[in-house]
């Protein structure tokens, strides 16, 4: 029988506008550590945490909104999504050497395998996807509950 990538595990957290981005990173790191990723795929964990920082910062700074952070992991990828109340979609733009900011989506684009943004009825969701490294995939399979066919 063909394997399906529909099996998924997920976590969600609301980060109010007044919360620190460190709270989001720590929360994400705890979930990745529980899955064995910090030992099996430390570079991927670093990339995920950078993306979490940038996406939550964008929600707070540019959308002036709380951020709903959702991480889901299926057979192939870890998906990191942040929803905020602004309908303005982000774009990766050229960095201005005179500006202190404006590089968030360039960083997400550099560290994620893919990213996309979608307008929603009450704002937008920005998602970054990270392929599961082989060692982390084996850890995830070992810790996942058995599948029923």
What does this protein look like?
It is globular, with a radius of gyration of 16 Å. It is of the alpha+beta class. The model is unreliable at 145-149 (pLDDT under 50). The protein is built from 5 helices and 5 strands; from the N terminus they run βαααββαββα. It has a 5-stranded antiparallel sheet, with helices on one face.
What characteristics describe this protein?
five-stranded antiparallel beta sheet; alpha+beta; disordered C terminus; 149 residues; globular
Compact description:
The protein has 149 residues and is of the alpha+beta class. Helix content is 38%, strand content 26%.
Low-confidence segments, given as residue ranges, are: 145-149
Strand content: 25-35%
Following the backbone from N to C, one meets helices and strands in this order, namely EHHHEEHEEH
Distance between the termini: 9 Å
* DSSP helical segment count: 5
Overall pLDDT, averaged? Answer: 85
Side by side, the strands of the main sheet go 1-2-3-5-4
Q: Profile the largest sheet.
A: 5 strands, antiparallel
Task: Give the topology.
Elements: E1 9-15, H1 21-34, H2 37-40, H3 42-61, E2 67-73, E3 77-84, H4 104-111, E4 114-120, E5 123-131, H5 134-143
Antiparallel strand pairs: 1-2, 2-3, 3-5, 4-5
Helix pairs in contact: 1-3, 3-4
């Amino acid at each position: 029988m063909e394997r399906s990538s529909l099996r998924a595990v997920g976590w969600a957290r609301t980060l109010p506008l007044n919360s620190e981005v460190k709270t989001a990173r720590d929360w994400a790191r705890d979930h990745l550590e529980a899955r064995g990723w910090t030992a099996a795929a430390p570079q991927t964990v670093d990339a995920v945490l950078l993306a979490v920082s940038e996406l939550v910062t964008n929600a707070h700074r540019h959308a002036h909104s709380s951020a709903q952070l959702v991480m889901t992991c299926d057979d192939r990828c870890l998906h990191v999504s942040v929803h905020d109340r602004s309908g303005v979609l982000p774009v990766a733009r050229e960095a201005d050497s005179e500006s202190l900011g404006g590089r968030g989506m360039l960083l997400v684009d550099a560290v994620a395998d893919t990213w996309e943004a979608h307008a929603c009825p009450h704002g937008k969701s920005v998602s970054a996807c990270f392929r599961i490294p082989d060692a982390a995939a084996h850890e995830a399979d070992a810790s996942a509950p058995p599948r029923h066919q």
